[in-house]
Specification:
Blueprint (H helix, E strand, L loop, with lengths): L3 H20 L7 H11 L7 H5 L10 H14 L5 H13 L5 H12 L5 H27 L14 H16 L5 H16 L18 E3 L2 E4 L19 E2 L9 H19 L3
Parallel strand pairs: 2-3
Antiparallel strand pairs: 1-2
Helix pairs in contact: 4-8, 5-7, 5-9, 6-7, 7-9, 8-9
């Protein structure tokens, strides 16, 4: 049986390796495949290397009109401080896209992961599909029937900075590619993180090494949350998820369930039985 302490030590070693991948440090077996997995999960794959390296470069003339529309959207969204106004604004921006936009986004991810290990790729693509299609569905459904009472009516701090980052990413993208789909990616993630107050990547999103985004009550945990700032133009620094710890670092489902049950029992006798 693996203890939570041992699992945490193993995971911190994994996080160190992931950090090295992101910063160009030490490599380990399978690093190319692992690194590309992390790129895609944390969104760096959305931007071509040339665009990331030349973020201040002038946009390609072919994409100026698209970029200007993206910048207009993010400038307008940045002024919202209440969810009741942010929700319809995000929905309006997302609804302006053609019907095949989500399918094209999914196809892009499928292409980027084509040469990955099949077992991991299959799990990742399930999460990506939920991140794209399910999030879009929730956005449009909520916009049609908005809540009458919000659990937290104000938009979390940092949304204006998120809009600034998304706009900067679109500028970088426009140096080499049309930024429209990238902007839609940020719209969906922004809805998930700032309207729903949930994770940018859905619960169950797998990371190399066996860990995944998880939830306990209202709190979401991510195995690499503490290293979100290592990735340029990533949604991760703006995500409300906390760094995975304790039972959330146990990879084996049976072991994790057993530890959780013991904790529930301990909590019951501590808080309800004196």
């Amino acid at each position: 049986m693996i203890s939570a302490t041992v699992a945490q030590e193993h995971t911190m070693d994994l996080i160190t390796k992931i950090r090295n991948l992101l910063t160009g440090g030490e490599k380990w077996a399978g690093d190319r495949d692992q690194g590309r997995c992390i790129d895609i999960i944390m969104d760096t794959a959305s931007l071509p290397p040339a665009a990331r390296e030349k973020a201040a470069a002038a946009p390609d003339p072919h994409y100026i009109a698209s970029l200007e529309e993206c910048l207009r959207v993010w400038s307008g969204l940045s002024a919202h401080t209440k969810k009741e106004t942010l929700l319809p604004a995000v929905a309006e921006a997302a609804s302006a896209y053609p019907h095949d936009a989500l399918t094209r986004m999914m196809a892009n991810f499928e292409r980027k992961t084509a040469d990955m290990q099949k077992r991991y790729r299959d799990r990742l693509l399930v999460a990506v599909h939920r991140e794209i299609f399910d999030t879009h569905h929730r956005l449009m459904t909520m916009a049609r029937e908005p809540p009458t009472l919000w659990r937290a009516p104000r938009v979390r701090d940092g949304f204006s900075n998120y809009c600034t980052m998304a706009a900067a990413a679109c500028r970088a993208q426009a140096a080499a590619k049309d930024p429209a789909l990238l902007s839609l990616t940020y719209l969906l993630a922004g809805f998930a993180m700032y309207v729903e107050d949930g994770p940018g990547h859905p619960v169950g999103t797998p990371f190399p090494g066996g860990l995944e985004v998880s939830r306990d009550g209202w709190t979401t945990y991510c195995p690499v949350r503490e290293h979100a700032d290592d990735v340029p133009f990533s949604i991760c620094p703006f995500c409300p998820a906390l760094q995975s710890a304790g039972v959330h670092l146990i990879r084996d489902p049976g072991e994790k369930k057993m530890v959780e049950q013991k904790e529930y029992i301990r909590n019951y006798f501590t808080n309800f039985k004196g």
